[in-house]
Amino acid sequence: MLRSITLASAIILSILAVACSENYPGEDERLSSVAATSDFETRLRFVESDTDNWILHGRTYSGARHSLAAQISTRNIDQLGLQWYFDLPRDGGQEATPLVVDGVIYISAAWSIVHALDAKTGERLWSYDPNVDRSILVKICCGPVNRGVAYWDGKIYVGALDGRLIALAADSGEELWSSQTLDDPDASYSITGAPLVAGDKVFIGNGGAEFGVRGYVTAYNADTGEKIWRFYTVPGDPDQPYENDILKMAAKTWHGEWWKVGGGGTAYDALAYDPQLNLFYVGVGNAGPYNPLVRTQGKGDNLFVSSIVALDADSGKYVWHYQTTPGDSWDYTATQNMILADLEIEGTSREVIMQAPKNGFFYVLDRATGEFISAEAFEKVTWASGVDAETGRPIVNGSAKYWLTGKSVTLFPSAMGAHNWQPMAFNPDTGLVYIPTNHMPSSFQAEQNFKMQPLGRNTGIDYTEVAVPVDPALVAKAKQTLRGNLLAWDPVRQKPAWSVELAEPGNGGALSTAGDLVFQGTALGEFAAYNATSGEKLWSFDAQTSVIAAPVSYQINGELYIAVLAGRGGALGRSAGKFSDPNLINRSRLLVFKRGGQAILPSPDEPMLTLPDLTELPINSDVAVQGGKLYANLCASCHGFGAVGGSLAPDLRYSGFIRDQVAFDQVVMEGILRSQGMVGFKQVINPDHSVALRQYLVQQNQVARKFGDTERVGR
Ligand code: CA
To answer: Is the pLDDT at 55 greater than 80, yes or no?
Structure first.
């Protein structure tokens, strides 16, 4: 308690210090005072103006991802070059925001592996591998990714994929403590998000809403790893005592036997903290399963799915909530990053929290009370016609209620969201929020005779379209309707200021700088800088692979560096398949840029693969379509939609194992390629499923040959 009060006062002091700039120490004086203190809380006073380090996930507790460093600006950005790079294994995508503390850069790579590197030279200082069991792949949606570590007082914290929260010594990588955050480590939870440290606590959530689990966040003692409090985001079995009164209230918004299917509401990514209010904000995930008939008898708001929930940071007690998608049935998570800002709205300065969740509306709320201020669509939205200005509730279109119509309905945004985990950034000088947006639809359909599968993806997505083989010309046409944007959004006027169109959805997180720049990577491998005011592209770099993580900036000896993780992966990158460039494989690296940097990436040449000729193998097209739906649900997130290998896992149309059912079963059911990362799926599928899957893959092989698509970059 005492420590967090101290921290709160420290932050207030820091805000005062920044506000009165003449009282603020000069650059050199500040550097020495920061370097001299052993008290990390004292140091946090300077976090806002500390351009040398990037200590918190969103740089400051505001989460704005706006650097005050202006050495690189619109005027000299052309001098920016690659200074060094650090190669990473290619067995997973890279989504982490690096942290930089005192000349050391800390990254969490795929499989929750942490590396500490000299921020000036790239020399590796230590690595830590939590040795996560690879069989976890059957119960995660989007690859073994990790979105970042947290730092506090000489410790690095990482949430391991298998649910452990681990503290490491920042100087050596030595494990200091490890706490299993899952009561049942076999349940289908996973951790991919960055922990958040505030006061003497470290906070962490988890993912798994599609797999029949119940979400929660937990606070641990930052020094010892001891559990302090836990807040469940959805109510459990009403025959058991409710954990608190607010869950008793929340249970009134659920119907039927939701606890038997989990309910979802997992907080897999965004956490935020306001030191003055001592409020801890949780971005809560989607409801699971998607179809509300099987989850909640088709009724109720299902609190607190798809909500922002504010808790007292010390006690974990509920303070307020705002639900962006009541009764969510489309995977419209509210786990997207939240930014705290002070905005002038209708002549009054308001302390707000801003979010652009998956559902396509940009929200501005009062962060002390949760009061709804405004919401407008920032992307194409067809599931709702708007957000009611009085009630703050979305006006849901009848056609979006696929569980009532029984029909497949195609909606914008997709289940991937108009905005996903890739962080947006806010520049208080331009007043603009820079959002990586996705322009793509999903088809939803209520599955007949739905049965919960123990480890299956229990969704309501209609996979028919992606399961049926189509002419590449039609795919090319479909691709034209998919895109991404770097959108500069005015949160006060709730209007776009400018927008840059990007060829594909699933682009990188944003970094804003006082040099009037916005940095962002793309799915197609360009790392670029834009004029923050106009959107004009000023600089770009060929990263040889997707850049989906968010960049950071730091300074050493007065020189500014920009760092970003490159590497294809995550939900969209892995599954892009026939909707993307199959030759743009995962080449995972940390890229670090500086003025005058001269480093050059190695040539991306890779061996080419030739499509095996399976023309003679017989196909039953009905069975193949069933296999296609299974494939889309279970396999595409690694092996790519349409069986076009995305980036990480082999293109199965090219696999020798699809020639023969016995060999195929050995791989798919028994997991004989486990050491290469392909675990057995026999907990999830039966032998008939395996036959259907193989039929589908052989069919896709034959389709590829028919259209002359017989070569690709290998892996
Ligand atoms: Ca989800």
So the answer is: yes
Task: Examine residue 641 and state whether it is found in any structural domain, yes or no.
Answer: yes
Residue burial 38-62, b: 16+ Cβ < 10 Å; e: rest: eebbbbbbbbbbbbbbbbbbbbbbb
Strand partners, 517: 513, 531
State the alpha helices, DSSP H only, in 324-459: 402-405
pLDDT tens-digit readout, 371-400 = 999 999 999 999 999 999 999 999 999 999
* 331 flagged as catalytic: yes
Cβ count within 10 A of residue 656: 9
Strand partners, 598: none
Q: Is residue 460 part of a domain?
A: no
The upper half-sphere exposure of residue 347, i.e. CA atoms within 13 Å in the direction of its Cβ, equals 0
Q: Which residue has the higher pLDDT, 419 or 43?
A: 419
What pLDDT sits at residue 16? Answer: 29
> Ligand 1 center to residue 265 CA distance, Å?
9
In a domain, 407, yes or no: no
Report the Cα 66 to chain-centroid distance in Å: 19
pLDDT in tens, 116-132: 999 999 999 999 999 99
* Averaged pLDDT, 664-685: 89
- Identified catalytic residue from 331, 462, 516, 581: 331
At residue 465, the pLDDT reads 67
Query: Pairing relation of β-strands 66-67 and 510-513?
Result: parallel
**Mean per-residue pLDDT for 562-583?**
79
Q: Count the alpha carbons within 13 Å of 486 in the hemisphere toward its beta carbon.
A: 32
pTM: 0.91
Ligand 1 center–CA 312 separation, angstroms: 26
What is the domain count for the chain?
Answer: 2
Q: ∠ CA(88), CA(600), CA(124), 5° rounding? A: 35
Q: State residue 617 phi and psi, 5-degree precision.
A: -75, 135
Does 704 reside within a domain? yes
C-alpha 459 to ligand 1 mean position (Å): 9
CATH code of the domain containing 689: 1.10.760.10
User: Do the Cβ atoms of 116 and 67 come closer than 8 Å?
Assistant: no
The answer to whether residues 426 and 512 touch, using CB atoms and an 8 Å cutoff, is yes
421 and 94 Cβ atoms separated by less than 8 Å: no
- Determine the distance separating the centroid of ligand 1 and the alpha carbon of 337, expressed in angstroms: 15
Write the single-letter amino acid at 477.
K
Ligand 1 centroid to residue 419 C-alpha, Å: 13
Burial of 586 (C-beta count, 10 Å sphere; 0-12/13-18/19+): buried
Q: Are 167 and 156 in contact (CB under 8 A)?
A: yes
Q: Whole domain around residue 699: which residue ranges?
A: 608-713
DSSP helix/strand/coil, 59: strand
Q: Which of 325, 330, 215, 328 is nearest to 262 (CA)?
A: 215
For the chain, give the mean pLDDT.
90
Q: Give CA 443 to chain center in angstroms.
A: 22
Q: What is the CB neighbour count within 10 angstroms for residue 120?
A: 18
pLDDT digits (tens, 9 = 90+) for 146-187: 999 999 989 999 999 999 999 999 999 999 999 999 988 889
